[in-house]
Design brief:
It contains 14 helices and 19 strands. It is an alpha/beta fold. The protein is globular, with a radius of gyration of 22 Å.
Length: about 475
């Protein structure tokens, strides 16, 4: 048995992959990624692929970056892990300082964890406990926005509203309510459509009746990633902040996807001078190297938890690898490099090239109903032909295109019948051109090869599906 055959056999016999229908997965050609360099990955047979989803939106400076490698190797020669429970270490102290120093001024505390879902779950628990400690225990309800996705733990599932991802677990959710998302369509730096009136009015009407029972509002600012890169118009985030302040509820911003340069800024909320009560960070914080997340918290909230041990104000929450020194070392170097990438104007130039290439490549294509792009994030919504009915869900057109893309040197991820393009921040103009050309080629090949029925889909384009 060859090495490839052994890897595939072990994978098929023993693995269970996330967000995957394993019966379907086991019928596909398998791909074993062996190494990476820049924006590219190689499989065990030496085939090269452009990583067009930044390894699920985490990768900032590409694979095998020499500066990040050096930071990791330097720390590896000191200590790989030391508990953060009752102890500290220099890298965690510095990272907490750097993250809060660059954040809105009220956010002066960093609570570390190891993934974005945990970062948001921590914020939810802190909000609940804060209200208990301040004699308002009736504040238990979470407000989220339709289409939101914040993770797969129980609290974050309740904060989200992502259909089939979580609906079967809803009877275990804490109290929740969701308001409609606004409408916005950006491409190549232009706003083609925007409307937030109904969304904001609905939220305000609800809080006029129920604010005393609400603990917090959770929002992905500017772009709802797993909803299909659904965007929000300028000023919407600031308006939500003002409503939260007026009704005295906590604002939790989920910047797990949108922070660290993904939309152009280090922290997205600073673009509209928004000061949340909790700022949740993940994915790009660790450059795609090691699990790392952080929840930044207002000092006033932190102060409510202080007291003697017997006062029972302690926040009982933690993770074994909280503030892992190896992860902190990479995060610090990543932060340093991100600041320079943004300050130099290079990231902004890359975003402009990306938006223009998408517009020129996909606008007007008969199988594309809409292209949305903000920063280095984009969605291509697919249709059979202009004005025709949708493919049925069973057609799995998104995945058909992604499998075709592998033959064309490209790793894509679908969301139902949409394609999500989220490349590393360092992608070059020629690589952007390759991404667009090979995506078009893969679309045309897969669609031409499909001979199944066309019908109205019961799952609209952009709605989360198990194919994420």
């Amino acid at each position: 048995m060859s090495a490839k055959e052994a890897y595939n056999q072990w994978d098929l016999e023993h693995s269970w992959h996330p967000f995957s229908q394993m019966q379907e997965y086991c019928s596909w050609p398998l791909l074993q990624v062996e190494r990476g360099e820049g924006c590219w990955l190689w499989d065990t047979e030496g085939n090269r692929y452009l990583d067009s989803n930044a390894s699920i939106w985490t990768n900032t400076f590409g694979h095998n970056d020499p500066d990040l490698n050096a930071a990791l190797q330097d720390q590896l020669g000191k200590v790989a892990h030391s508990t953060y429970l009752g102890l500290s270490h220099p890298l965690a102290a510095e990272l907490a300082h750097r993250l809060t120093e660059l954040a809105p001024e009220p956010l002066q505390r960093a609570f570390f964890s190891d993934n974005g879902s945990n970062a948001i779950e921590i914020a939810l628990k802190l909000s609940y406990q804060y209200w208990q400690l301040t004699d308002q225990p009736q504040r238990k309800r979470i407000i989220g926005m339709e289409g939101g996705y914040h993770g797969d733990t129980v609290g974050t599932m309740a904060a989200g509203s992502s259909g089939r991802f979580h609906e079967r677990f809803s009877e275990w959710f804490p109290e929740n309510w969701h308001f409609p998302a606004p409408r916005c369509h950006r491409l190549a730096g232009k706003i083609l459509e925007e409307d937030a009136t109904q969304s904001l009015q609905c939220l305000e009407r609800y809080l006029q009746m129920e604010a005393d029972n609400v603990a917090c509002l959770v929002l992905e600012p500017f772009v709802q990633g797993a909803a299909g890169m659904v965007q929000q118009p300028p000023g919407f985030l600031k308006s939500v902040e003002q409503i939260c302040r007026r009704f005295g509820i906590h604002l939790i911003l989920d910047e797990v996807f949108v922070a660290f340069g993904r939309l152009g800024a280090l922290y997205t909320c600073t673009e509209e001078s928004v000061e949340p009560d909790f700022l949740c960070l993940g994915k790009g914080i660790g450059a795609g190297y090691l699990p790392m997340a952080a929840t930044l918290v207002r000092e006033a909230i932190y102060s409510a938890f202080l007291g003697k041990w017997e006062d029972d104000r302690t926040f009982f929450h933690g993770h074994t690898f909280t503030a892992n020194p190896l992860a902190c070392s990479v995060a610090l170097k990543n932060l340093e490099k991100l600041q320079e990438l943004i300050r130099s104007g290079q990231l902004d130039k890359t975003i402009k090239v990306f938006g223009q290439a998408l517009s020129e490549s996909f606008n007007g294509h008969p199988n594309v109903s809409e292209v949305r792009q903000y920063g280095l994030s984009a969605t291509i919504d697919l249709q059979p032909i202009a004005g025709a009915k949708a493919w049925p869900e069973s057609a799995r057109m998104g995945w058909r295109i992604c499998l075709a893309a592998r033959k064309n040197g490209l790793l894509l991820r679908p969301l139902g019948n949409s394609l999500l393009l989220v490349p590393p921040l360092i992608i070059q103009p020629d690589e952007i051109d390759f991404l667009c050309r090979q995506t078009l080629l893969s679309m045309d090949e897969a669609i031409a090869d499909y001979s199944g029925p066309l019908q109205a889909s019961h799952m609209p384009t952009g709605t989360p599906s198990a194919s994420l």
